[in-house]
Inverse folding.
């Protein structure tokens, strides 16, 4: 019974992975220090990747708090984890989210979350590579606007492949448990 259950879980996981965007195209963006970064810079380590924007009134702060808490839980489980896992926040609003704005915004969530921005075209291409929907809403009387976007955090393995994604309903504990499980399974395959 346990064997069949594990087999079914493995098949469901494989089916789910086939449905995930592959992120093969990668990205070419700038970090908060102004350094050019690409997906290739993060190969060899694990990445938690979230697309959002600093002017988001509620969803992005909630997701970043959850991501920060998941990182804390993972660090408690394995103090050697920080160099193995890089959290990334890619803005979907590059017109307002320059490097300095991202740095100020992200310091409130977790010190290891690295912000990435770029030209509108670069950001659009990065979002498209992961199948992330992005649409800027109409401007109000003050010229302010919100950006509607997919609310997903992607887990990329050391080969740069998407291994899982987490939506709004995932808790920090579930994300931490899933990431740890993927890391252990990957390690077992690599050994």
């Amino acid at each position: 019974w346990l064997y069949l259950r594990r087999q079914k879980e493995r098949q469901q996981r494989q089916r789910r992975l086939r449905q995930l965007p592959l992120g093969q195209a990668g990205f070419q963006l700038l970090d908060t220090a102004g350094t050019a970064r690409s997906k290739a810079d993060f190969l060899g380590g694990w990445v938690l990747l979230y697309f959002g924007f600093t002017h988001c009134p509620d969803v992005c702060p909630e997701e970043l708090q959850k991501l920060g808490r998941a990182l804390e839980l993972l660090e408690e489980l394995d103090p050697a984890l920080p160099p193995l896992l890089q959290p990334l926040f890619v803005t979907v609003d590059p017109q307002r989210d320059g490097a300095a704005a991202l740095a100020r915004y992200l310091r409130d969530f977790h010190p290891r979350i690295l912000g990435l921005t770029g030209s509108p075209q670069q950001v659009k291409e990065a979002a498209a590579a992961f199948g992330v929907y992005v649409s800027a809403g109409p401007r109000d009387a003050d010229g302010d606007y919100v950006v509607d976007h997919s609310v997903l955090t992607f887990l990329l393995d050391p080969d740069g492949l998407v291994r899982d994604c987490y939506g709004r309903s995932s808790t920090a504990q579930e994300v931490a448990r899933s990431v740890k499980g993927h890391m252990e399974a990957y390690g077992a395959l690599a050994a």
Q: What stands out?
A: The helical segments are 2-19, 59-77, 99-106, 120-129, 172-190. The chain has a mean pLDDT of 88.
